[in-house]
Design a protein that fits this description.
It contains 2 helices and 2 strands. It is an alpha+beta fold. It has one domain. The protein has a two-stranded parallel ribbon with strand order 1-2.
Length: 48
Protein backbone atom coordinates (compact mmCIF):
# COMPACT_ATOMS: atom_id res chain seq x y z
CA UNK A 1 0.00 0.00 0.00
CA UNK A 2 1.27 3.48 -0.81
CA UNK A 3 1.66 6.17 1.81
CA UNK A 4 -0.96 8.91 2.01
CA UNK A 5 0.24 12.50 2.38
CA UNK A 6 -1.46 14.07 5.40
CA UNK A 7 -1.61 17.71 6.52
CA UNK A 8 -2.72 17.65 10.17
CA UNK A 9 -4.84 20.53 11.48
CA UNK A 10 -4.71 20.43 15.26
CA UNK A 11 -4.90 22.42 18.48
CA UNK A 12 -2.41 19.88 19.87
CA UNK A 13 -4.30 19.26 23.10
CA UNK A 14 -4.37 15.86 24.79
CA UNK A 15 -6.56 14.17 22.18
CA UNK A 16 -4.82 15.73 19.19
CA UNK A 17 -1.42 14.80 20.63
CA UNK A 18 -2.48 11.16 20.38
CA UNK A 19 -3.51 11.71 16.75
CA UNK A 20 -0.14 13.34 16.06
CA UNK A 21 1.77 10.40 17.54
CA UNK A 22 -0.41 7.98 15.56
CA UNK A 23 0.28 9.85 12.32
CA UNK A 24 4.02 10.00 13.00
CA UNK A 25 4.29 6.26 13.61
CA UNK A 26 1.77 4.87 11.12
CA UNK A 27 3.56 3.08 8.25
CA UNK A 28 1.04 4.25 5.62
CA UNK A 29 1.03 7.96 6.55
CA UNK A 30 3.47 10.58 5.32
CA UNK A 31 2.95 13.61 7.57
CA UNK A 32 3.73 16.58 5.33
CA UNK A 33 2.86 19.32 7.80
CA UNK A 34 1.11 20.41 10.96
CA UNK A 35 -1.12 23.46 11.24
CA UNK A 36 -1.47 24.51 14.87
CA UNK A 37 -4.66 26.31 15.76
CA UNK A 38 -6.62 27.17 18.85
CA UNK A 39 -9.17 24.71 20.18
CA UNK A 40 -11.49 25.01 23.18
CA UNK A 41 -10.63 28.64 24.00
CA UNK A 42 -10.71 31.82 21.95
CA UNK A 43 -7.89 32.75 19.60
CA UNK A 44 -7.26 35.88 21.71
CA UNK A 45 -6.51 33.70 24.76
CA UNK A 46 -4.08 31.44 22.88
CA UNK A 47 -1.93 34.04 21.13
CA UNK A 48 0.62 35.82 23.37
Amino acid sequence: MTKKNILLFSDVGIDDSIALMYALHHPNIELVGIVAEYGNVSQKDTVP
